[in-house]
Design the sequence.
């Protein structure tokens, strides 16, 4: 395994991010709110991603193996005054050949470290489909606690999926 570098992505990483996002939607369709087909319908997706990566509403972290983007996650902030103490961990994905090498943990730790430095963030929330025990175990190993299950949170071609709602207090 080569050396993995976790960094904050910017607009120059938009095409790499978009390609990895499409892979994620295809490889793990039940893990994301957006479907692969919906993603393909976006107009100028790389430009949209570039705007998102330069936005102050969120920070997207990328894990690189040499020059290849192999993992991502996003820390999203809210502009609502009464919710500024919260951030949301979204869109976690590591390409299959790099899974089980600690990359997801590195991405999450970088997001936690960034949230702590932010100053206002007191807790990080996430949701994960209940049929993904490996992801739930990963989040629990870092300190996230389940506080609720949203029944029938997602409706897929195969049926409904519940989501486990989790929080980490900083």
Sequence:
């Amino acid at each position: 395994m080569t050396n993995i570098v976790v960094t904050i992505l910017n607009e120059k990483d938009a095409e790499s991010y978009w390609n990895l996002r499409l892979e994620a939607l295809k490889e793990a369709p039940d893990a994301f709110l957006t479907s692969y087909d919906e993603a393909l319908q976006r107009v100028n997706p790389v430009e949209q991603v570039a705007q998102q990566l330069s936005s102050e509403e969120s920070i997207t972290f990328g894990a690189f193996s040499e020059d290849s983007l192999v993992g991502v996650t996003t820390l999203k902030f809210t502009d609502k005054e009464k919710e500024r103490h919260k951030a949301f961990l979204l869109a976690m994905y590591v390409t299959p050949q790099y899974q089980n090498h600690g990359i997801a943990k590195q991405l999450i730790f970088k997001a936690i470290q960034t949230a702590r430095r932010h100053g206002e963030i007191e807790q990080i929330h996430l949701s994960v489909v209940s049929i993904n025990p490996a992801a739930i175990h990963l989040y629990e190993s870092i300190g996230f606690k389940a506080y609720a299950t949203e029944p029938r949170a997602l409706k897929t071609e195969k049926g409904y999926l519940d989501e486990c709602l989790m929080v980490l207090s900083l």
Observations:
- The helical segments are 14-27, 36-40, 45-53, 103-118, 133-142.
- The radius of gyration is 16 Å.
- The domain at 4-121 is CATH 3.40.630.30 (Aminopeptidase).
- DSSP finds five helices and seven strands in the chain.
